[in-house]
Amino acid sequence: MKHIRTNLSDADTRREAIVEAALLAFADAGFQATPVTAVAVRAGISQAYVFKLFPTKEELFIAAVERCFTRIEETLEKSARTVSSGDADAILYAMGDGYASLIADRSILMIQVHAQSASDVPAIRATMRGGLKRIVTYVKQRTGASDEAVQRFIAFGQLCHLITTTDIDELGEDWARLVARGIRHVPAI
Amino acid sequence: MKHIRTNLSDADTRREAIVEAALLAFADAGFQATPVTAVAVRAGISQAYVFKLFPTKEELFIAAVERCFTRIEETLEKSARTVSSGDADAILYAMGDGYASLIADRSILMIQVHAQSASDVPAIRATMRGGLKRIVTYVKQRTGASDEAVQRFIAFGQLCHLITTTDIDELGEDWARLVARGIRHVPAI
DNA sequence: ATGGTGAGTGAGTGACTACTCACTAGTCAG
DNA sequence: CTGACTAGTGAGTAGTCACTCACTCACCAT
Fold first, then answer.
1. B137 vs A45, A157, B141, CA distance in Å?
2. Looking at the domain assignment, is residue A99 inside a domain?
3. Which of A78, B9, B98, B182 is the S-S candidate for B13 at Cβ 3.0 to 4.6 Å?
4. Strand C reaches within 7 A of the A29 CB
């Protein structure tokens, strides 16, 4: 199939589109189980061209993870701006809400879970560490909350991931309600 | 290579050994990235025989995950027995310590992370849900702690996983200390 | 002896997939 | 017009891996 377009998009635009496609594709089945072809199809280009812009699958995945963390930072920042007072707990709460709605579509969440699982690859582990560092330092500095509160924020974020990957929020059983209690939800679109 | 042994072990013993080998093998690189051959080598038998006892790789992985949850339950129960008082918080604390030493060798922890990542496979997701259910109901019933305390217990368990997969406990930086603060460690053997 | 049975394997096979490469086609400066 | 450049692809290749199958060997009951 030929792509007929009057004005060709340049490589940087393509890179953006590919990273976006990779975020969605890798979120489905993870680093190992997602063929690069799946990313290419989503981006509407050939697999060969994906490899021209991202020399290895690993680099592509890492770009997607990096993008994921950037998106989280943006969301936290936006959430923080909605709070007029400087109250640490109020800002932290708003950030929690913001994160909850960000991960409503699952891909941002799943990429993190997959990256954690693939963290035996040194570069992926390093990316995870870097992303976590960015988020923790940003939350601490921006909210001014106590170390304990920030730690708790991260811990319950992880709990959120567990709840979503196992689908226990759709379960209705007692133990499931216990685990998911108070976790804020925005229903998937 | 021939296995010369006077008394052949029966299939059930072999199954045990294979599950144990699978736990270690899959912990290294996860469900997708670990070839069944790796499990066979660890168990000291041929790959063909692994497939005779576990018809698919998926069933093998699930057996390993199940075994992981069983091990966790045993550990929690043993920890609970060390507490003479019936104080909920004391038992929960002991369980936390027990879990921390259980995951010191990483394989029990990594299997969970990998299973979470592979939870787009329905049977694996179901196994995760089942394991979580067993643990949550056991902890709640055995400690008699509040729902909030049990939820917190699970959340900080997940935080533990994040800390270990990203190696941030060996980092020494401020943000890393914040995240890992108070998480109990038993140094790896 | 003989034939059945359970434990175990060597040697495939077919499918998939990361990555490569030689190539086409549009665009534009001179 | 030409030649360099950029965007993009079709058709591979080499390697890996889940799973299969025909087989061997030890043991045992008759």
1. 49, 22, 6
2. yes
3. B9
4. no
